[in-house]
Design goal:
Shape: globular
Strand order of the largest sheet: 3-2-1-4-5
Distance between the termini: 26 Å
Number of helices: 12
Largest sheet: 5 strands, mixed
Bound molecules: 5'-O-[(R)-(carboxyoxy)(hydroxy)phosphoryl]adenosine, zinc ion
Oligomer: single chain
Low-confidence stretches: none
Amino acid sequence: MRILGIETSCDETSAAVVEETGAPATPWAIRSNVVASQVAIHREWGGVVPELASRQHIRDICGVVDRALAEAGSTWRDLGAIAVTQGPGLVGSLLVGVSFAKAAAAAAGLPLVAVHHLAGHIESLVLQNGELPLPSIVLVVSGGHTSLYLVERPGTYQLLSRTRDDAAGEAYDKVARLLGLGYPGGPAIDQLAKSGNDRAVALPTTRLTHADRNAPELKGDLDFSFSGLKTAVLRHVRGRQAEIAGTNLDLARNGVAQGFSPALSDQEIADIAASFQRVVVSALVDRLFVAARRYGAKSVGVAGGVSANSRLRADLKERGERREVPTFLPSLALSTDNAAMIAAAGLRKFRAGHTASMDLNADASLAL
Ligand code: KG4
Ligand code: ZN
């Protein structure tokens, strides 16, 4: 069976055709995965502008779906179902995908499957690597989420912890903006950190032990927090700018007073990027492996946009080898938002007997 996946939760319009292979180890094969990125549109504004995003999804969705079908050599008649991201995400963006999927399902007489965006990210690991040894601990780390899940059986996801404030990707994007690196910040910091000294700047690691008031059922010590780190980077940069201005009387008298930011050297910016990245990646990898030990995991995985990060990928592999736990990552193309992962999660749900009705609505804060 072939399934069409549709993803429009944020700033990527994507459609994909995924096919069941019948092989238990590698259940799904990607026949096409078309992604129209809106990065060029949002870059100008330094971040995603929701209204511009939904309008662009409307412009792109028909062409993206047509192309996904054509690249897969499929017609509507070859499909067995349509899967769509129901949430979480930007509601205007989600509505474009959900409305399109409902209309297409009605017109083609196909069942509709509603998919949680993070279930898609988790299933990107299976799409890439085949079924994971279970139980598995999966870290989903993106622009909107930083959460640890326990997967005990295929298609079940138990939330163990999450960020109390910023998501890791969000911290990357904010720090990148502060350093003048543009949007999206993750890839820019990742690249620059390669030429920086990751011990140059002492930045705090946040430890959380108390329970979260909003989620008292969770113990709390596996939670994440990145807003303190972001503030520490901000303080460091402002402090250095004041020092630089202080050594230059003209700047001190005129420049700073007029709101001009004295420039840090390229090397200093690279050092800050590398130091920030070291702290973020170690916070992510440390908690992942604490959870793996606690739950006797037979594998660990990292998915979501930040899983494209080169240091995270390297550190995960290294730690997994040391602890003798197999580690799993999606390919770079499957790390950031794409519809193939939504199609995969949709197939899993469809086979478990879950379809959606025609009154399906987008849900910006859908729980998993
Ligand atoms: O999963 P995703 O495409 O969209 C969301 O669901 O949020 O993740 C996007 C996030 C952005 O914050 C971006 O800066 C981050 O993933 N990202 C990275 C890298 N590539 C993308 N962060 C760190 N290093 C990267 N190489
Ligand atoms: Zn995502």
